[in-house]
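Regression test case RT-17, inverse folding.

Input:
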């Protein structure tokens, strides 16, 4: 057999190997998506026509003039959070503690945090209202479906007892800082750490790192029953920088938006002292039994 023939045979075998890997990865991704649909909404096929695109417009979608306008609004938001003095100073000196001391200090911090929230509630609401006006996501990366072996959000939720539902929003990051998710509901309510249950059925059932207890935390907002139609917006706020184990003042986060079994993952960064980021939005149409008209995109 000639050298050329051997080389061509090797190339063909390599090509078949690569195709096989891609097919297996694609199959795993389809199986993961099917498992999510079965878990969150077994009637997905009948109801998916009532779901709008769950990818809101991002900075990368803007033209040059729109980017300039967005940057001006972003600067105003950063100035607003500084003006309102909403940057959380250290409530106590951070230091390595024994597990028993950790729990005692966590209880103390919960009390101090609640006191700070009550004192600054008006300013917090004012800043959130400014952020809610934003219609553009903050330039996060819209991720492709994550391979099962690289995806640990489900594992984190299971560890913390997070609930599943027809609409589920999950935030994950990989350090000891305290990030917070804010969900603006169609009713005008905001679900966050100081309003964990909304009248429209949403619930923040996992809220982590008030005290820096985990370097793989997760937060979860879920509608276990039917979620109301309308527009939802998801914001992320860097609430407090914990210096434990060299956690930095800039954190990379992942946000998963799950609507009736259909999911989209986002990745972005946020820094201590910056304004709350509007990450994305989606619109849920009313069921055909409720209305014969669809909501506009």
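Golden output:
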């Amino acid at each position: 057999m000639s050298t050329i023939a051997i080389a061509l045979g090797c190339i063909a075998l390599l090509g078949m190997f690569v195709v096989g890997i891609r097919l297996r990865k694609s199959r795993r991704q389809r199986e993961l998506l099917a498992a999510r649909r079965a878990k969150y909404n077994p009637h997905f096929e009948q109801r998916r026509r009532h779901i709008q695109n769950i990818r809101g417009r991002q900075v990368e979608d803007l033209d040059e003039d729109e980017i300039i306008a967005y940057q001006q609004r972003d600067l105003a938001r950063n100035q607003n959070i500084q003006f309102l003095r909403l940057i959380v100073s250290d409530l106590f000196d951070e230091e390595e503690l024994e597990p028993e001391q950790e729990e005692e200090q966590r209880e103390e911090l919960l009390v101090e945090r609640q006191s700070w929230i009550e004192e600054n509630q008006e300013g917090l609401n004012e800043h959130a209202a400014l952020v809610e006006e934003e219609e553009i996501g903050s330039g996060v990366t819209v991720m492709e479906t994550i391979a099962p072996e690289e995806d640990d959000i489900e594992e984190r939720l299971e560890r913390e007892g997070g609930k599943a539902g027809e609409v589920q929003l999950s935030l994950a990051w990989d350090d000891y800082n305290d990030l917070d998710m804010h969900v603006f509901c169609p009713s005008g309510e905001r679900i966050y750490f100081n309003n964990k249950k909304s009248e429209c059925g949403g619930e923040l059932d996992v809220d982590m790192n008030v005290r820096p207890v985990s370097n793989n935390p997760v937060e979860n907002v879920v509608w276990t029953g039917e979620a109301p139609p309308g527009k939802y917006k998801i914001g992320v706020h860097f609430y407090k920088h914990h210096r434990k184990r060299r956690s930095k003042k800039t954190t990379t986060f992942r946000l998963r938006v799950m609507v009736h079994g259909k999911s989209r993952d986002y990745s972005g960064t946020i820094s201590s002292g910056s304004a709350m980021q509007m990450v994305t939005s989606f619109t849920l149409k009313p069921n055909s039994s409720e209305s014969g008209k669809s909501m506009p995109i």
